[in-house]
Here is the input.
Amino acid sequence: MKKFVNYLTRELQLSEEKSEIIEYGLFSLLYSWLSIFTALVLGALFGLWQETIAIMFMVMLYRKVSGGAHIGTPLGCLITGTAAILLLASFTSVFGPKLAGNLIFAILSLAITFIIAYIWVPADVPQKPITDPQQIKKLRALSFCLILAWGLAGIFLFWRSQQFAYYYFAGNLGLLWQSFLLTPPGYSFTAYLDRFFVKK
Amino acid sequence: MKRKLLALIAALLAFVAFSGAASACWGTLYQPELPKALRKK
Here is the structure.
């Protein structure tokens, strides 16, 4: 990857600053796709690809606007993120058929998500501090909009069919997992996992 | 032609980087160090 960035820098005679931006973009793109691809392939192997998509979609979308705790290495992230999503997908396949139509669970998970968002969004990390008041305001607004839109989608889907409710349940689990990563216990949890991946 | 293609790739990667910087994080559990040029003062 570094070689490709060096090649681009040389060919286009880019400054060091621009080269860093391009490297960040390339890493971001490749790494996101690798994470999605790994989770989808393993999800398909376990026969849970649809649940995996629903969970991953919600986690990644909400994470973009809310932030949250991180793992210190790309490999640690790949393993932990994929394991968490597959675990939630398995949970969906076991409990989804019973709990998917449960209105109390849906309302409760949205309420928890909203309260956590109100207190902790945006949750930043030292690698990417969020200090600009405008950006904080924007990310908070986007997070609340997303939760509201998800809630409205739920009202619509609940009256539609049980199958939609099943995937909505999966999405709710993704939302709860991401909400957990916004809280101090979520940060402690990833810091604990970091011990297995970050070499001292 | 080759130079134009490389410039296009570089522009797309810069766009990805800028849009990533505007969001709270990447969307995955790993967050690399944000380049200084992308940090808001």
Summary: Chain B touches chain A through 34 residues (CB under 8 Å). Residues 2-22 of chain B form the longest helix (21 residues).
